[in-house]
Amino acid sequence: MGLLIALLAGASVTGLCYGVALWRSEARLPPDLAVALEVGATRTTAVGSAVDRLGMRWAPLVLRLMGPRRVARIRARIDRAGNPGGLTVDRYAARRAVYGALGFGGALVMLVEGRLLIAALLVAFGLFWIEVGIWAAVRERRTAIERTLPDFLDVLAVVVSAGLSFRQALDRVAERYEGPWADELRIALRQMDMGVSRRDAFDGLRRRNDSEQVAQFVSALQQGEELGSPIVDTLMDIAADMRRTDAQNARRRAARAVPKATVVITTFMVPGTLALMIAGFFLGSGVDFGTVSGR
């Protein structure tokens, strides 16, 4: 047992020294991996960059093991998350390799020592840590877009009613906004500048965003274009529907919060309050508990 732990510790130290030496020596990567490492480098953190550099050599192997279908799903999820921290599919694979090695290596050590819970947590870290980051980024991005979209549509309707075409108004308003929704619009506008039709560009915008309101906006816009309805009225109707939906969702969240608050109150606050009241009653009564107990 002790020999196995020593071997695992030695392997861990060797891997750490190799990683540090690789980082300090600026070892050259193959050209394709070097390009993959440069993509998004300005948006990632120092820790993320170090992890990417350590795992980039193993990224092609991880991608082959994942298979093309899963890689396509991961790419779509990263797009929906807005490429947080410059994350790409190659960086995802590199981090998956590093986190997996750390998680499973640490889990093996904990299993040898009989610490099953810590081993399970380390395995979960290796498998799901990067997935948790993507999931959180998708939720945060969706919330930011849905918060911005109704006001954006109101401003866009005003600009269109002032006499600009929809394409010009979209470009003008997008310049005044910051955040994920403005970034998505700039991507769609750039695609239209390159010859992509407006319908295809907005279909791509809908696919890149896991948001019901974005899907509603694109569908209503395309339907209004097909039916020939005024674009200003369409934009105002979409904004009103989104605000109505937000109000309904807020009421649903409030309704779901009431039972949760009731459970917390009845489970923790009521027993605690009763305990304090009983303790205060006995302490304030001046009863000698020694005489009560017969001592």
Automatic annotation (TrEMBL):
Transmembrane intervals: 116-138, 261-283
- Which UniProt keywords are present, listed alphabetically? Cell membrane, Membrane, Transmembrane, Transmembrane helix
The DUF5936 domain, residue ranges: 1-141
Instruction: Write the protein's name.
Output: Type II secretion system F family protein
Q: Cite the Type II secretion system protein GspF domain residue spans from the record.
A: 152-278
Membrane-related topology note: Multi-pass membrane protein
In which domain of life is the source organism classified?
Answer: Bacteria
Coarsely, its chief localization is membrane
- State the GO CC annotations: plasma membrane
